[in-house]
């Protein structure tokens, strides 16, 4: 692609992307009834972009077709461009960019780039970037975390390019300190060889979190951290890893179907204490994760989904959290159940991961310190303790089984106030009838703008 117009300094200054706990906006207004388990001091500058972000944005705009970069710079104010997440062009459709709206909890917002459909000539401007090699349909911009992906028509010969998605990659600093209290949270898990699963929908920030986790762990001279980079989104697509992962060892996968092989190679050849993996999606990768866990190596990985039960019910990935299968109860056991059922679902095995964090938005995370207890409670239809993580604090919340997922309530009294994981709390399943009644009452509470959360006034 031809070089784009220079940015002429519009990116000057680091962007502060932190947003504090705005409970009214996020649907967590509880009239002071919630239980705060722990608070911590947030970084003085909040969550900020990595120091090299401005230079990388200049590289991106210099790489884009000149007409497109000039139009974006002229059309959008700096506040839009510094929060740019994606540029999308599709043949016959109006092109758009996707930006993060931090006034709305960091949710993505689509904005039209111009008021007419894209032409084939405009789409083809990206063809030179791939030098005719479009088999992988994605390519990184060297020296950055940005990526260009193609949409093609596989049944046409030659294969035409129908669309282009430019993904803006950026590293953040202070995210883990803001949301969990600092490196101690990660070190405590690492020293106890406890693996952490990060669950979230696409675009919610899972890879961004992994990148900072790698940087934090790599600063500990007693830990050897290895990053297995499936699509080169964690550390870029160049020959050298992006500085944002610190001194962690970097193993790019190349083709995504080779990830399980590289995961096994990492544990066999790199003597790791921690392996970081992005996007576990296949049975073979689940098997590789099990191999890593059996070697006593900590694994920190991401997986697509909204809540823990959604991963549990996934045929390919369910074993990450213990899996489930149908069992037949005795008459006495069935009689003790509220539904009196003999055929029920039970956890099938030990989870590969010990703890889980669900990323629901930039400033709203749910932490499950003990996955197997959360899974057992869910399958038994019981509520259990979890933690709502917001900038600067952890709030006790109840995980309530609902329609193959979890709903959450912060308006309840947690059963266990004991501290674990440097104050992050201990998760305990609620088995008593009075707690069943409480969960039932909470399920009837007022819903929020996120179906996975229920707030009871």
Protein model, in words:
The protein is an alpha+beta fold and 457 residues long. The protein folds into 2 domains: 51-167, Beta-Lactamase (2-Layer Sandwich); 172-409, Rossmann fold (3-Layer(aba) Sandwich), CATH 3.40.50.300. The protein has 15 helices and 23 strands. The chain has helices spanning 23-26, 53-63, 66-75, 78-81, 120-124, 127-130, 175-180, 183-191, 206-218, 259-269, 283-294, 308-312, 331-336, 371-379, 433-443; strands at residues 36-39, 48-49, 84-90, 96-101, 107-112, 138-140, 147-152, 161-167, 172-173, 196-200, 225-229, 249-252, 274-277, 298-304, 324-328, 343-347, 355-361, 364-368, 384-390, 393-402, 405-409, 446-447, 454-455. Strands 1, 10, 11, 12, 13, 14, 17, 18, 19, 20 and 21 form an 11-stranded mixed β-sheet that branches. A 6-stranded antiparallel β-sheet has the order 5-4-3-8-7-6. Mean pLDDT is 83; it is low at 4-15, 18-31, 417-423 and 425-452. InterPro entries: AAA+_ATPase, P-loop_NTPase, Spore_III_AA_AAA+_ATPase. Pfam families: Spore_III_AA (PF19568). This is AAA+ ATPase domain-containing protein. Residues 416-425, 448-457 have a biased composition (Polar residues).
**CATH level 4 superfamily of the largest domain:** P-loop containing nucleotide triphosphate hydrolases
Low-confidence stretches: 4-15, 18-31, 417-423, 425-452
From the 3D coordinates, which CATH architecture of the largest domain would you assign?
Answer: 3-Layer(aba) Sandwich
The total of helices stands at: 15
Largest sheet: 11 strands, mixed
CATH topology of the largest domain: Rossmann fold
Distance between the termini: 56 Å
Structure classification: alpha+beta
- Would you tell me the overall average pLDDT? 83
Number of domains: 2
Proportion of residues in helical segments:
25-40%
| Amount of beta strand | 25-35%
CATH secondary-structure class of the largest domain: Alpha Beta
SS elements, strand count: 23
Domain AAA+ ATPase: 192-348
Biased composition (Polar residues): 416-425, 448-457
Region (Disordered): 408-457
Protein name: AAA+ ATPase domain-containing protein
């Amino acid at each position: 692609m031809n070089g784009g117009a220079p940015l002429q300094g519009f990116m000057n200054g680091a962007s502060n992307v932190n947003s504090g706990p705005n409970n009214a906006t996020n649907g967590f207004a509880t009239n002071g009834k919630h239980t705060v388990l722990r608070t911590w001091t947030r970084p003085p500058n909040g969550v900020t972009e990595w120091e090299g972000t401005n230079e990388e944005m200049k590289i991106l705009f210099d790489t884009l077709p000149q007409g497109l970069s000039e139009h974006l710079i002229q059309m959008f104010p700096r506040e839009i461009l510094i929060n740019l997440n994606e540029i999308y062009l599709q043949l016959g459709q109006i092109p758009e960019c996707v930006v993060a709206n931090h006034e709305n909890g960091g949710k993505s917002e689509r904005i039209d780039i111009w008021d007419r459909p894209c032409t084939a000539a405009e789409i083809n401007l990206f063809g030179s970037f791939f030098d005719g090699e479009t088999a992988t349909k994605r390519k990184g911009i060297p020296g950055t975390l940005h990526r260009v992906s193609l949409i093609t028509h596989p049944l046409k010969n030659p294969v035409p390019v129908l669309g282009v998605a430019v993904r803006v990659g950026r590293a953040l600093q202070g995210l883990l300190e803001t949301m969990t209290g600092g490196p101690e949270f990660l070190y405590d898990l690492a020293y106890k060889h406890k693996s952490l699963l990060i669950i979230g929908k696409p675009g919610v920030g899972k890879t961004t979190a992994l990148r900072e986790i790698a940087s934090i762990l790599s600063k500990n001279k007693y830990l050897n951290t290895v990053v297995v980079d499936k699509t080169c989104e964690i550390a870029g697509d160049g020959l050298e890893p992006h500085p944002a992962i610190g001194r962690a060892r970097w193993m790019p996968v190349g083709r995504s179907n080779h990830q399980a092989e590289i995961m096994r190679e990492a544990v066999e050849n790199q003597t790791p204490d921690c392996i970081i993996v992005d996007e576990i999606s296949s049975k073979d990768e689940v098997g590789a994760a099990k191999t890593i866990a059996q070697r006593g190596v900590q694994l920190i990985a991401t997986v697509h989904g909204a809540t823990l039960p959604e991963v549990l019910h996934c045929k390919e990935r369910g074993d990450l959290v213990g899996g489930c299968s149908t069992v037949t109860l005795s008459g006495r056991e069935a009689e003790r159940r509220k539904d009196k059922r003999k055929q029920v679902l039970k956890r099938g095995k030990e989870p590969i991961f010990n703890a889980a964090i669900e990323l629901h938005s930039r400033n709203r995370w749910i932490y499950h310190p003990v996955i197997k207890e959360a899974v057992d409670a869910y399958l038994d239809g019981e509520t259990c303790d979890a933690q709502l993580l917001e900038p600067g604090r952890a709030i006790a919340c109840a995980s309530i089984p609902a329609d193959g997922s979890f709903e959450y309530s912060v308006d309840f009294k947690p059963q266990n106030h004991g501290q674990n994981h440097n104050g992050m709390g201990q998760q305990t399943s609620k088995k008593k009838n009075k707690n069943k009644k409480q969960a039932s009452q909470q399920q009837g509470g007022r819903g929020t703008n996120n179906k996975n959360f229920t707030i009871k006034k």
